[in-house]
Amino acid sequence: MDHLREIETDGISNPREISRLAIDIGGSLIKLVYFSKDSSDHEDPLNDSVGVSNGVNGRLHFAKFETININDCLKFISANKLLLGGFQHQENPTNDRSFIKATGGGAYKFSDLFKEKLGISLEKEDEMDCLVTGANFLLKAVNHEAFTYLNGQKEFVQIDHNDLYPYLLVNIGSGVGMVKVDGDGKFERVSGTSVGGGTFWGLGKLLTKCQSFDELLELSHRGNNRVVDMLVGDIYGGMDYSKIGLSSTAIASSFGRAISNNNELDDYKPEDVSRSLLRMISNNIGQISYLNALRFGLKRIFFGGFFIRGQSYTMDTISVAVHFWSKGEAKAMFLRHEGFLGALGAFMSYERHSLDDLMINQSVQIPVDASCGTDTNYNPLERDLNETESMQCRVYQA
Ligand SMILES: Nc1ncnc2c1ncn2[C@@H]1O[C@H](COP(=O)(O)OP(=O)(O)OP(=O)(O)O)[C@@H](O)[C@H]1O
Ligand SMILES: CC(C)(CO)[C@@H](O)C(=O)NCCC(=O)O
């Protein structure tokens, strides 16, 4: 991957129109969120904000890079002049464009690199704070952000602002964080697991020798986990174990079939291994999430993080796990901007730029970019936010 697409492809030709870049540097991926003012909108409160109250139309842009390719990200920022409309320090307005908001572990790890290569400081924001701010913002401000996915059926969820809390936020990044959210800025990280997206990508790479995450996902589409997993029926001579509610086709032991003969890794198809791995990890996360929801009596679980990548099989497995273990009591929901919660939270943390200041233009509720905006067949759920994307919005300054 990943996307040294020129800014022009997003319809932004004037770099002075860019403003406010925020960054989330995770263990696997770097996420960028930045704002660009519509060229038809002549006011420029983001660079000269004092006294402006009626807002500016523009777009929020999203981009991501692999953390191991951080230099590509630095080049992208530099080539597209994303720092030009940077943030002006309140206390010291002459100290313009000297910092950007940053979250994730990489905000610490790569702080010197940003200073050295771009001459910019990273103003660090707590990862969990940003995650929750980003999730709350998306759930409240963007229609068609959350959806359920069960038996191949996608359904958007109408969020009632007065009945949003409490909920469990499960962020599946390299590792998995589980956060009980009780309100804006009111949350507790209640659990986590190291068996997450990094595990799928890392183990998958070792086992299948594939070269990219997308290749690993592609393999999983064509695989059959039945070849690798041991099913209840394998143990029960083809029968269900109905007394405890297990059908013969339920997985009794992920990868369990690999013990039953003298096969080597090479005897298995990479696609079968990839599918089994994806199923194992998704199922495990679904189960742990349900257990944590149960601990706190939570009925709604929102899943984010780039492990999901809008993949049907991943979402279906997670949903089935939550549905199965909760006996239909708890609901798994997914977010369109799944991997950008932290970066959005960092974006919202700029001074005088609170949740209430950023309004999504209700006439364009579903994020579109230049390439799909004219496509009447465009279905936001058919593609993920892997490419640089944007959504129409209006920014208000107090
Ligand atoms: N193009 C890609 N390259 C690598 N991993 C990808 C890619 N697309 C999706 N992923 C998956 O997304 C995961 C990273 O998700 P995300 O960006 O939400 O987390 P992170 O911020 O990197 O991790 P953490 O929060 O644990 O530091 C990877 O571990 C991998 O499973
Ligand atoms: C360490 C973080 C918070 C970094 O984003 C994440 O990868 C994570 O939540 N890992 C799981 C760690 C655990 O709770 O076991």
TrEMBL record:
Enzymatic class: transferase
A molecular function GO annotation: ATP binding
InterPro entries: ATPase_NBD (IPR043129), Type_II_PanK (IPR004567)
Entry's EC annotation: 2.7.1.33
GO cellular component: cytosol; nucleus
Pathway(s) the chain acts in: Cofactor biosynthesis; coenzyme A biosynthesis; CoA from (R)-pantothenate: step 1/5
CDD domains hit by this protein: ASKHA_NBD_PanK-II_Pank4
Keywords assigned by UniProt, alphabetized: ATP-binding, Coenzyme A biosynthesis, Kinase, Nucleotide-binding, Transferase
Lineage, uppermost ranks: Eukaryota, Viridiplantae, Streptophyta, Embryophyta, Tracheophyta
Listed name of the protein: pantothenate kinase
One GO-annotated biological process of the protein: coenzyme A biosynthetic process
Source organism of the structure: Salix koriyanagi
